[in-house]
Amino acid sequence: MDNYFYIPQLEKRNKKANRFKIIAFIALISSVVFLFFFLSDMITKGHSAFIQTYVKVPVNINKETQEFSHLAIDRKKYGRIVSRAWLRDLPNLIKENPTWMDTNEERWTLANSNVDQYVKGKYHTLQPAQIELIEALRAEGKVEKRFNNIFFSKGDSKIPEYSGFLSSMIGTVLTMLVTMVIAVPIGVMTAIYLEEFAPENRVTQFIEININNLAAIPSILFGLLGLAIFINFFGVPRSSALVGGMTLALMSLPVIIVSSKAALKAVPDSIRQAGFALGLTKWQIVRDHVLPLAMPGILTGSIISLAQAMGETAPLIMVGMIAFIPDASVSLMDASTVMPAQIFTWAGMPERAYIERTAAGILVLLAIMLSLNAIAIYLRKKYSRTW
Q: What is the per-residue pLDDT for 2?
């Protein structure tokens, strides 16, 4: 009689378990499909930004040209296909290539964004006469697509074909250095104190609850906090890597503290008890035994927290790091921008050439973040110990 009621209930539970497995599998497949479409879309749109079009046209270089670079080419014929930024930078190119002086030769020049988009088969606004000229130059072998070293060697520009990612990459490095130097030591030491040395009372419980709450609040609130404290109160230069790094450090601290506490708590108490049995002090046990065993978890949490901070835009907008920065920063006090802010700026530009640069910037940012996560996994496996 008992088996009569037991078997239907067991079958019912098995059916529920199977349904749950199917739903979980569908969710997994959906996330993989979404990720595939996202990456494929970014690669499709962004890979062309790493290639730039050059055209070979007559360039007349003399003393007058150095003062009025627009006279270096036949503006009526080639003015609409050669980049204005390349002509503007011509005096610097002459300094790098003194043999160009007092010459009138055909030289490879940077094509403007419309020509570049046409050659790549994308939307453009070229006139029929300009298209005819490009096709004539292409038939003569005077149109080439080359690796876009400008993207990695120049800063932002209002001219699409001359805009690069260098200033934002250097700004990101400086900002993350400040964030790492501030957030990681303070976060780890705070976690050690709260987990190993702090007494169990209402004060420490209140602190831990607030740290957990801070880890979940919107990131833009940390931007407001950085604006109020670091800029308005302490007078740190606006848009600088220093203020951006300190703001991101505030945002990263709760996550680092929580992950470090979890790593320390995962170390068995038998390790601590064995240390006490040998006559070691509390600090010696933590320094020589507990901390090394918890280090993989601490490193993983810290690196993932820094990678998350690298992808933040909202708090940095509040401290002014969305500014137009054509030149790379050389100090922590210089005006800087970061990769997410640069991507945000390019996404709002009206020129179609910025679409591929936006996607290319996303690919670079994703590559760096995935590299940081890979480093975290490697360090966790390398330094993990069994007990």
A: 52
CA distance to 251, 266, 300, 375, 386, per residue, from 381 (Å): 27, 16, 10, 10, 11
Query: Can you list the alpha helix ranges (DSSP code H) found in the chain?
Result: 2-46, 63-67, 75-78, 84-88, 90-96, 113-119, 128-139, 150-153, 166-192, 202-214, 219-226, 241-265, 269-277, 282-285, 291-310, 314-318, 339-347, 353-383
Give CATH for domain 166-383: 1.10.3720.10
Cβ density class 94-133: b for 16+ within 10 Å, e for less: beeeeebeeeeeebebbbbbbbbbbbbeeebebeeebeeb
pTM: 0.84
Query: How do strand 103-110 and strand 143-147 relate by DSSP bridges?
Result: unpaired
HSE-up (13 A, CA, CB side) for residue 336: 27
Burial of 4 (0-12, 13-18, 19+ CB in 10 A): exposed
d(CA 344, CA 6): 60
* pLDDT block averages, 10 residues each, the chain of length 387: 61 86 94 91 91 92 79 85 89 85 88 92 89 92 92 89 91 92 94 90 88 85 90 89 93 92 91 89 90 88 87 87 81 89 89 91 90 80 63
Q: Which two tokens stand for residue 168?
A: 């934002």
Residues pairing with 108 in the sheet:
56
CA distance 344 to 315: 13
- The residue ranges of every structural domain in the chain are 55-146, 166-383
Token digits for 218?
Answer: 């919107």
Note the pLDDT of residue 385: 55
Identify the residue whose tokens are 């500014």.
Answer: 323
Using CB atoms within 10 A of its CB, is residue 318 exposed (0-12), middle (13-18) or buried (19+)?
Answer: buried
At residue 22, the pLDDT reads 93
Cβ count near 217 (within 10 Å) = 11
DSSP string for 220-279? HHHHHHHIIIIIIIT-PPTTBHHHHHHHHHHHHHHHHHHHHHHHHHTS-HHHHHHHHHTT
The pair of structure tokens assigned to 144 is 């080439």
Distance of CA 16 to CAs 4, 23, 30, 31, Å? 20, 11, 21, 23
